[in-house]
Amino acid sequence: MKKILITGAAGFIGAHLSKKLILDGTEVVGLDNINDYYDPRLKMDRLADLTGGSDLFTHVKIELSDRESVEKLFQQHQFDAVVNLAAQAGVRYSLINPHSYVDTNIVGFVNILEGCRYSGVKHFIYASSSSVYGANTKMPFSVHDNVDHPVSLYAASKKSNELMAHTYSHLFGLPTTGLRFFTVYGPWGRPDMALFLFTRAIMENRPIDVFNNGNMERDFTYIDDIVEGVYRVIHRIPQGDKGWSGDSPDPATSYCPYRIYNIGNNNKEKLLRYIEVLEDCLGKKAEMNFMAMQPGDVPATYANVDDLINDFDYKPSTTLEFGIGKFVDWYKKYYGG
User: Fold this and answer.
1) Hey, which residues are catalytic here?
2) Per residue in 239-266, pLDDT tens?
3) What is the distance between the alpha carbons of residues 77 and 73, in angstroms, rounded to a whole number?
4) What is the pTM of this model?
5) What is the 3-state secondary structure (H, E, C) of 166-228?
6) Under 8 Å CB-to-CB from 106, ≥6 apart: which residues?
7) What are phi and psi of 209, to 5 degrees?
8) How many helices (H) and strands (E) does the chain have?
């Protein structure tokens, strides 16, 4: 894989993955529209951090929903692989601005699929989400379980990505791999995520909002673990599963070159424990404002990563203490404090 397109390259995961690939000697074209869903300065600083004068990275500012611009991009470059990390993120925001999820996560996604189809891309990898498990309660969440009951439009858009990818794998033989990420955190993280919000509030002596009265559990996954998983997946092109049967269809595999994997820490942690570790790292106690469950949220996430272990000999393992400590160090350096 000598040349890779990464969409959402100025985003949290996209910037980290771009940096790893560049250090590995891979040419990266990073697509990002630098929108204002959160502070664009953070996105620009991520780009500045990963380029570092390297001629292996090129940033292109394009809207995924702009079909002509996306078509032109694929005509100008011959990508070996495409990693689609661009998305309108956030479960709660999907209740406020649903159209942005359709524009980016669905219209933009099919534009990328079409680019891959007509340009001979060897492998299309895309970010799905743990949110697709929706109303499922069987733990840990397995890629082999049915996920037909989303509880947010964001989750529904991610499930639609998996369905569209399968269609292109079936019709055009495009190898596709979907990755369901579980609560990613770490340096350069998103300001709308809990760790960022909590850290800022605690340092500014403001109370933090703790939903579901603190009875939340998440499979918190450190950014380096996510990036390592994506990196390994890029270099393994999926094959059709000869044992797949339409009589008892496995949602994670197919007769065509299509796969789905969870990337999570395989370790369900209570939100209150997450806050305790953050308090220890900051050396400061949090004032907690306990609130009801928010629409679209789920009380718990927990990843089964058996397939990741079996196929890649890889299992995320970073502890909260290490990961949160790294985030706090970065936050203080970046913002001062």
Assistant:
1) 154
2) 999 999 999 999 999 999 999 999 999 9
3) 6
4) 0.96
5) HHHHHHHCCCEEEEEECCEECCCCCCCCHHHHHHHHHHCCCCEEEHHHHCCEECCEEHHHHHH
6) 157, 160, 161, 164
7) -85, 120
8) 11, 13
